[in-house]
Amino acid sequence: MTRGLYTKLAFTNIKNNKRFYFPYLLTGILTIAMFYIMCALAENEGIGKMPGSRDVDMILHLGMGVIGIFSVVFLFYTNSFIIKRRKKELGIYNILGMEKYHISKILAAETCFTAVIAIAGGLITGIVFNKLMCMLLYKLMGFSAGIDFYVSGKGIRLSILLFLGIYFLTLIHDLLQLKLSNPIELLRGGNTGEREPKTKILMSILGVISLGAGYFIAITTENPISALTLFFVAVVLVIAGTYFLFTAGSIAFLKMLRKKKSYYYKTRHFTAVSGMLYRMKQNAVGLSNICILSTMVLVVVSSTVCLYLGINDMLKERFPADITVSVRYTGEVVEDNNILPVVESAVKENGRKVRGELSYTELTFTTVQQDEKYIMDRKKLQSEVTMSDLVGFTVITREDCRELYQEEFPELADNEIGLINIKKEEQKEQLLLNDQAYDVKESKIFKENDDTTSMLNVMENYHYIIVNDMDDLERIYKTQAEAYMEDASPITQYYRIDLDGTEEEKKACFRNIENHLAQIENSFSGSIYSECRQEWKENFHAMYGGFFFLGLFLGMMFLMITVLIIFYKQISEGYEDRERFAIMEKVGMSNTEVKATIRSQVRTVFLLPIVMAAIHIAAAFPMIERLLQLFGLKNTPLFVLCMAGTILVFILIYLLVFLRTSRVYYKIVGEQI
């Protein structure tokens, strides 16, 4: 056979199978465009000049990795569908005299055509829309700068290498399928029916257990750090449980419906249930994929939207005042230092007025709990202890406690302390820190405030020790300094002030404060640190704007994959169902009954994933909420609103896709009825 014939046959095959190839090519083009845009943005020189550029660079490279990984899965899935639909065609070639060697050349030519069109189209699309995406990223990050049109050489190289590799692997997969099949199998490959699957009790039980365990972890994990470590465990359990339940649980459910005679022996129920039952093994994988991808879209988009809209809340959580100056002492504390006069002087120089101020001193350290004793030991902390063994303490004076938390404690003797337990109600008569025993005169509990939440994000067990004065606080400092030596926590004095004026005026005042503090730092006994909420705002916008951008990008990709799976599933089921429904019509079912059966089956199958995804989201809500607390976001109503809005928009898109792809299904089935 001449080489030109292979090329001509390959081109004709793609043209004749355009119903399958067009979505495959389109999604390949969009995926490559998205990957190129991520590469180009990561290489953008302007992003390197903006505040928080390191965070943004990390986010963009993370996006490149995620898109690359899902591209492999995505293109393999769609290619496997196409090759399955074309097995009959390849079998005819084989029977007509073509050897598998010749068919392999045709498949290679088809893959080359597909790869060239997808990669070229994707790169052109990415280059055209790169500037628009860069403008969107700048807008979300609150960064204003001129954007020049540019082409990323590195992005082109990486995109070509990655996707040439993916298409080459799909070709190898197709050639293996061809080699392992005989002509008869190829002729029947696209129409192989499913035997009635067995009821897999063990798999159903495993599905319930896996899903239940995942939900249990998500609902009961209270500590945000624990939620972070257990999140991926819960995700794996839920994914496994979803596959098990759709594969085995759905079969058990359909067989249960079949046994219910009052339901099963109705025309539309009989055909719908029996049809789904005999093909549920292949249906289950597609439905599980749709469910999991839908859940991923909802989680990713709602979380990143919430983080972006909650930037101001997180800023206030992280920076309770406009300007905070802290002085850390590793020795004797100088109570009457000259920090506050210097800060006040700098504020007056800039013409600003102090709207509120607060000063306090605290000591924070960590211990290991052993029975009723709290051990301060470097070796124990560095050994493999669990988070539940760690207990945190903050020591403050009675006066500062009253100012900060509006909690009054009575006068305390030398060996007496007050105790505030966070979230956990514990009545202690004595507190043992190493070998030092302190009598607890009064113990209180309060659940949460701005200063305690950040510590609760790290530890499940946390307490505030209330002492009479600075002398008592320094005694506890010396105890932990002797135990931890160079790893000892310092005593820290905080000065918080709120100012009048605009954000720019506050930033100018902060820079003046920094200049004044730098002049006295060398003659000062402690280390001085200062921070300004307004200065950090740009960094927060850069980081969370980048997360929002990545969330939208990944959400679009997951949604695109979901749409393609639905589309191919409708086509696949259409070809498998049309002959069956034609036979039913010939043996007596009316056209109206056949169409009612089709609608019933289609609605049942495609409503299952979105219902299951909604259940997953409801179970995951508490864990996602606690993960957001790690970013300093405690605005639950905002998260509820973002989640509800995302679900509503996704359901509308899902229904539109469902209605559009259903028309394709009805058209295919209608060709026979």
Task: Give an account of the 3D structure.
The protein is an alpha+beta fold. It has 23 helices and ten strands. A seven-stranded mixed β-barrel has the order 2-3-6-7-5-8-4. Helix 5 runs antiparallel to helix 8 and helix 10 crosses helix 12. The radius of gyration is 32 Å and the shape is elongated. The mean pLDDT is 79.
In short:
This protein is an alpha+beta fold and 673 residues long. 69% of the residues lie in helices and 12% in strands. It has a seven-stranded mixed beta barrel with strand order 2-3-6-7-5-8-4.
List keywords for this structure.
673 residues; alpha+beta
Q: Find the count of extended strands (DSSP E, 2+ residues).
A: 10
Instruction: Name the shape in a single word.
Output: elongated
Helix percentage:
55-70%
Strand order of the largest sheet: 2-3-6-7-5-8-4
**Radius of gyration from CA coordinates:** 32 Å
Low-confidence segments: none
Distance between the termini: 41 Å
Strand content: 5-15%
User: Largest sheet, if any?
Assistant: 7 strands, mixed, barrel
Which assembly state applies to the chains in this document? single chain
Number of continuous helical runs? 23
Mean pLDDT: 79
Structural class: alpha+beta
Write the layout of secondary structure elements.
Blueprint: H1 3-16, H2 18-43, H3 45-48, H4 53-85, H5 87-95, H6 100-141, H7 153-179, H8 183-189, H9 201-220, H10 224-259, H11 261-264, H12 267-278, H13 280-309, H14 311-318, E1 323-329, H15 339-349, E2 354-370, E3 373-375, H16 378-382, E4 390-397, H17 398-405, E5 416-422, E6 430-433, E7 436-446, H18 450-456, E8 462-467, H19 470-484, E9 491-499, H20 503-520, E10 527-532, H21 533-586, H22 591-629, H23 636-670
Parallel strand pairs: 3-6, 4-8, 5-7
Antiparallel strand pairs: 1-9, 1-10, 2-3, 2-4, 2-9, 5-8, 6-7
Helix pairs in contact: 1-6, 2-4, 2-6, 2-7, 2-21, 4-7, 4-21, 5-8, 6-7, 6-21, 9-10, 9-22, 10-12, 10-13, 10-22, 12-22, 13-21, 13-22, 13-23, 14-21, 15-20, 21-23, 22-23
